[in-house]
Amino acid sequence: MATEQFYEDNRNNWDDRAKVHVGSEMYRIDEYATNPRATSDVVEFDLERFGSLDGLSVAHLQCHVGTDTLSLERLGAASVVGVDFSPVAIAEARKLIRRAEASSRFVEASVYDAPQAVGHTVDFVYTSIGAICWLHDMDAWAAAVASLLEPGGRFYIRDVHPFLFIFEEVDGKIQPHFPYWYTPESPLSWDEDQTYSDNPEGTAIASTRHHEWNHSLPEIINALVGAGMRIDQLDEHKMLPWQYSPSCVKEADGWYLPEPLRSQVPSAFSLHATKL
Ligand SMILES: C[S@@+](CC[C@H](N)C(=O)[O-])C[C@H]1O[C@@H](n2cnc3c(N)ncnc32)[C@H](O)[C@@H]1O
Description:
Elements: H1 3-21, H2 29-34, H3 41-50, E1 57-61, H4 67-74, E2 79-84, H5 87-99, E3 105-108, H6 114-118, E4 122-128, H7 138-148, E5 149-160, E6 167-170, E7 173-176, E8 188-191, E9 209-212, H8 217-226, E10 229-237, E11 249-251, E12 254-256, H9 261-264, E13 268-275
Parallel strand pairs: 1-2, 1-4, 2-3, 4-5
Antiparallel strand pairs: 5-13, 6-7, 8-9, 10-13, 11-12
Helix pairs in contact: 1-5, 7-8
Bound molecules: S-adenosylmethionine.
Residues 7, 10, 14, 62, 64, 67-68, 84-86, 89, 110-111, 128-131, 134-135 line the site of S-adenosylmethionine.
């Protein structure tokens, strides 16, 4: 299958997921729209790690329906532009920003085309949780991140740890199943009529087919270094803000693998880098 077809399947799948997510309890759209102090746990967790947003121009890659984008604005950014390739997600994000009387801007574009679509450089690029598994080309991704940044500008990502992605739950047991390294031509392909959020309105996911690529930490880091970025910090986390598999355990701040895996396997990573 051609790479373009993988992306077309994914975009159709994300259009359907966005329709479900805006009606879900998980995404709390009405709360974000009506409470000017509502911010996302994900961005708050990350803010403690990347420091202040005050006065910064920000690009938020793979912004989905805009809840984290709005949070970046509410937590101090001077301006925020969200980028996503799903027209439904972008339309919903714009609707949210209008309802919230906020000012974030959104552009519909592939991550790879973000620099041209945004049209200017920024001080800070942010992306998080469930982002790079949808991209087949880390070098092109890193080049887009670097092109968006002013020299001295910073990049922060927190995402699912690539080692976690080798695990699958079968009969209540989480065990290694998928390969760690994938080639661009061979994503993992799925047919699922559900998404990861609740679905109170029972909205159907018609475009069930989607494709994901795993990227090892060296692949991610080497791509960023090759694009002219300096890696400032890399951390691994036991917590994920999303239930990876049915046996994962919910705690006050998020989801954890059950023991003994919790002590053996990282669930997420975060990375800071600076454009040289
Ligand atoms: C799991 S969401 C990430 C969002 C964020 N953690 C949240 O929950 O709001 C993944 C987003 O990536 C977007 N996406 C996937 N592939 C993309 C691509 N090639 N270019 C731009 N956006 C893409 C999807 O449309 C979706 O909105």
